[in-house]
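> forwarded from #structure-qc
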């Protein structure tokens, strides 16, 4: 009887440890810069993405300077490729192959993050939550690029020919690859700015980014430079490889996979106890 109890407790401890392991925040950051504009201004700053656990909403903090007053389209683009500056980041990240829309629209690209509304200072520091993007899984944005546009995104509601494709947001004035960052403190659902030290002044392990290739299971990973000059210096530094995307956090379906695993373990425990009685 004591042996049965001991084994049961060990299995329960394993389940709890698995749950605790998965409940780890994931943070990614993009160091954004762009070409000098005609008036001498230059977009610069960072965008931080935090996901408290697999399958949860993503908290986005945008800290940028050098923007003109007004609204600027803000998107995740499909490629983490800055070999030709922002021009080589491809189209909006749109794995569902649907029309462009606003961040709160039922139909939108995964990468449709709406507009950044900037005041006369040219500086923006906002925090909000997005329910569509993810840092893991099929809609994962790590390794792709954030892009800031010159004009306002019409959210797919305009009459321009590009409205349903790009929101007619104009040229690309700033961009950066989304790289893995150190694990942060958990964030609460909020729209108000979170008053923490600017990410650019916090020391983390060097972030990494990968460039998606034709085969999704084959990712080339390169060191990510903080505030590199524009355009970014290439050729790439010597890469190393991740041959299996499951090495990234929240593998095997994230929370859903974890719950399935726990359900299986629970059945095993129940069967064991029934045989022990």
């Amino acid at each position: 009887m004591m042996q049965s109890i001991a084994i049961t407790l060990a299995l329960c401890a394993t389940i709890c440890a698995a749950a605790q392991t998965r409940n780890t925040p994931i943070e990614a950051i993009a160091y954004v810069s762009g070409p000098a504009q005609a008036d001498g201004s230059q977009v610069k700053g960072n965008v931080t993405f935090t996901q408290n656990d697999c399958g949860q909403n993503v908290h986005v903090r945008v800290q940028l300077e050098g923007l003109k007053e007004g609204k600027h389209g803000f998107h995740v683009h499909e490629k983490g490729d800055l070999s030709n500056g922002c021009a080589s980041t491809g189209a909006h990240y749109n794995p569902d192959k649907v029309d462009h829309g606003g961040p709160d629209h039922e139909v939108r690209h995964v990468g449709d993050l709406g507009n950044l509304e900037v005041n006369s200072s040219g500086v923006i520091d906002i925090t909000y939550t997005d329910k569509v993007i993810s840092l893991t899984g099929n809609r994962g944005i790590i390794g792709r690029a954030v892009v800031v546009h010159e004009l306002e995104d019409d959210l797919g509601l305009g009459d321009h020919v590009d409205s349903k494709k790009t929101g007619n947001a104009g040229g690309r004035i700033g961009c950066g690859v989304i790289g893995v960052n150190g694990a942060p403190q958990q964030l609460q659902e909020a729209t108000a700015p979170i008053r923490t030290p600017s990410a650019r002044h916090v020391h983390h392990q060097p972030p990494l980014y990968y460039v998606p290739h034709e085969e999704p299971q084959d990712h080339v990973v390169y060191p990510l430079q903080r505030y590199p000059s524009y355009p970014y210096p290439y050729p790439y530094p010597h890469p190393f490889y991740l041959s299996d995307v499951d090495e990234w956090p929240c593998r095997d379906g994230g929370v859903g996979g974890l719950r399935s695993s726990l359900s299986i373990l629970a059945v095993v425990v129940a069967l064991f106890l029934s045989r022990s009685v």
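QC bot note: Residues 25-248 form a domain with the Immunoglobulin-like fold (CATH 2.60.40.200). The chain has one domain: 25-248.
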